[in-house]
């Protein structure tokens, strides 16, 4: 992956592929330093055992015999990227053209994600802010399965339809891509392409019904104001959609506000579609037009392999023909540890509180467990109900460590159908989607 020119802004790899590296290692490379050399870490992991790692971390690893082969201490998986995006704080930039930036887990600790901590995922050229005037903005509803094509101003949307607010989980389909082996090209998201702000707007269903949905309608598609990265105005940066069943859910919104303020520029101001629980690529930003389709929408990035996975399990590295791919719907169960921050030092004898969020696409999370001994034993965490359907759920728990040393907290959610998060990346697929592997943090007990 490091040598792939497509990944010019790649993050250090964080997953199992460390172990497949063939690089030789020198003794003076034993402490990994992201700034100086990414490669040394791979070499280190190849030769060094857990004992050497414990030395590098500066602590013993009490449950080291329980740690599965193939996992490296999470203390080695931290990054300290600088950041500078207007309106955003602490995001890690993965690509600057187009701008793509993710949120470190400890900055997602709020129950409702503040605008400054919401990730940014752009496929094209962000519209000039001077063109994003809510007073003159229009939204067109059309398409072959629309009975009465209509154009609305934002003021008309606000006055004609009832307003609703929901907290909605938006997660990029490629969140977690950095862990795939062989690597998938594209933004190397680790865990931070997810957020759960509160959106306010009108129900897509109310607007579509007012414009008449023909009986043959099967899908909706969106068009937006951003340009294709080539600058060619005849092409869309992205134009995706969802089946009618998802479009007509109560929580699917045409939103103008996030957390009771105007949508941030980078998150779609002045209007965006929000389809919580599905790949966030279905939530069109800078929304200009919605079409009601009598077939699966055929806009840019609708066709395989975009946002698609193999219909059957494939071995890592398999070339999968497009006809054997299917489009992603609901996202899988996943969770984050948002407090404390990984790498924290903790005093022996004091209770250690941990917390975070869990979500499961269209489903609910029904069970949550945490471990401090590399998964040998798990304790049930307190799990709260969502603020509303499709909002993430908060969990918390507490540990007492038996002795000084290096620990990891592992967290695992189970959805309402009994489907659990895997410990390592499940289901390799060519584009690196849907990695819902467990999150873990490092703790030094002193
Ligand atoms: N118009 C437009 N909408 C878009 C995109 C885009 O590039 N242009 N990116 C999509 C993708 S892939 C994701 S993951 C989400 C990200 O939303 P955010 O940038 O507000 O976090 O927006 C989606 N909507
Ligand atoms: Mo995405």
UniProtKB/TrEMBL annotation:
Keywords: Metal-binding, Molybdenum, Oxidoreductase. It holds the Pfam family Oxidored_molyb. The keyword Metal-binding applies. Residues 132-299 form the Oxidoreductase molybdopterin-binding domain. The keyword Metal-binding applies. CDD domains: SO_family_Moco_dimer (cd02110). InterPro entries: Ig_E-set (IPR014756), MoCF_OxRdtse_dimer (IPR005066), Mopterin_OxRdtase_euk (IPR008335), OxRdtase_Mopterin-bd_dom (IPR000572), OxRdtase_Mopterin-bd_sf (IPR036374), TAT_signal (IPR006311). PROSITE patterns: TAT. Its cofactor is Mo-molybdopterin. Residues 327-445 form the Moybdenum cofactor oxidoreductase dimerisation domain. Gene3D superfamilies: 2.60.40.650, Oxidoreductase, molybdopterin-binding domain (3.90.420.10). This is Sulfite oxidase. It comes from Oceanisphaera ostreae.
